[in-house]
Amino acid sequence: MPTDHSVYPALPADPNALVFTPEAFGACPDGIGDNTPALQAAIDTIQSTLTHGILFVPPGLYRFGGRVDLWRGIRLIGFGPTRPVFLLGESTPGYQHGQERYMIFFRDRRPPEGEEPIDAQNTTFYSGIRNIDFEIREGNPAAIALRYRVAQLSSLEYIEFRIGSGLGAIEATGNQIQHCVFRGGEFGIRTDKTSPWRQALVADCLFEGQRRVCVDSHDAGLTMLRCAFRDAPEAVTVPEMKTEQLFMKDCRMERIPRSGVSMSLIRHAGNHLNLINISCSEVPLFFDIQRKKYNPHLIHDPIKAPSTDYVVEDMHAGLSVYWADGKVYGRKAEFKANVRPVTDGGAGSMALWQMPDGLTALPPMPEWINVRTCGARGDGLTDDTEAFRKAIETGRVVYVPTGRYLVTDTIRLQADTCLIGLHCHETMFVMPDHTKGFDDPHSPKAMFEIPRGADCQVRGIGIDAGYNRGSIAFRWLGSPRSLMEDVYFDFGGTGRASVKGTGRMHALLVEDGGAGVFQNVWIPDVLSRDGLHVRNTSTPGQIWLMSVEHHEQVECVFDHVRNWLVCALQTEEDTGSEYALSLRLTDCEDLVFANLFQYRIMSIDIRHPYASHMERCREIRFRGVHIFSQGATPYDDMALVDGVGPIGEREAAYVRFE
Hints:
By secondary structure, the chain is mainly beta.
């Protein structure tokens, strides 16, 4: 896919969304007028009338003379045959010196009039920008396109940042960045902790021509998948004497003269490095250990290029723990690297924009069928079940505008159905409490069902399965090519300790050979027994950034599962979940958990002995596990294995259960 391709060539029909036009808000798409007050007015209108929602931006060149505040839960989505461009013109006043000189500042709630807006917080959900490019022209050396310190279900997608001589593209990142191109700037991304202290995912992105470093990060739980770095002094740097939980897989580096990865391997259990399959060309120094005199426990020469083209097949550094035969038989700080020279051109050039394993990208808009044309109302009162069944029978791609769609029976997708929404909080499927056929826990029934081996996609929607004791929000039997992305499982949140685990079976159930890619998914569905339940499958599955929170007894269950890669899974316990497990694994094999974050909120004052419980499992690897709390009672230990004894660490870069 070309880097400047518009994924929405036409305006998606949505009666609840607003469009940034000259008539409605005074927009100036001519590259001359200042759009700062007009865009702020449009965003403020959505906040004051809808709270959350979508602002569609037509094609054009939109010049800005100052900062725009984007309130939480609002998404800016460009459309048209070419992407709209947000422009900072030559020598725009205010962008020559100083800090925090942003074009767009992601914020939390809009404050009352007269109060200063605050930075995005751990409650900044659902925000995003998609299919809009940014350009910073000469004479703006302090300019940064975005401040993006956000929480769950926020995303930046399909954006090209042309930063030129400006400072950078993104500062203070969070949650998900995907299908973005970063050209020029002192840096592409510079960040520290995300606002909720959870992982940040960067996937399918290209960094090119930065003057200092492509990515500068510490303590962000940085998880990078299928990214490319070209023509910059350094690719990824962790500042000196700082820590990071860095995981990179299937990335490529080209013409990086100073270092591919640079960080201090200081003696801190929370400092993790894990790299898998990084192909390099003209990268003379792949890994540079900063300030080696502070790393006497990990004396190691820098990883230099064995040839012009080479592959770093596997590398890990930090605290490693090895378990076998009922005990820990190894615990040490270590550095291990497997680097293979390539002399036959096999390093090649990575197909940057191709999803893994042939997974299709967003379906082209001409194939979209608007469910409203099939009779759906989306008013929260009318039963829309039959309208969705009709739409699924009519075509492959069903587009769902924002609304609340009442469902009273199972909706079964076909083998290649794509269900597409554009705002997961405002495009909700709702089942009434005590719906007939869904209220018996002895006879579970799914609200949505993905058929066996299907290549389905489900994107940009929310699910509220109601108080129905036998309900399963999603029963997923899809193929490894199937996809769930940008999906929210309501309800919901904190403060319902008395009803936790009493109202539903499972939120997301993957079983009987099912698999898929599950990306940017949030499951705070406290009424369910557990949030994620995977069982009886050896079909390869993948998770890229999932948050599962607040369930009564266990967040995630893996039962008789093999061949899954779980990247950036975060769990959280709150009131009513004091005795909950983060993970329960039974009879599992060949699972990898990368950048696993297991959190308990600061107000919990009851101890729990271990985060994970494992029975009869083998070849389980944690490539970075982070157990923490801002209060006094994080999980005591990492895991209880086969009832024999705990693994006492809360932090480790590499853990292997053999």
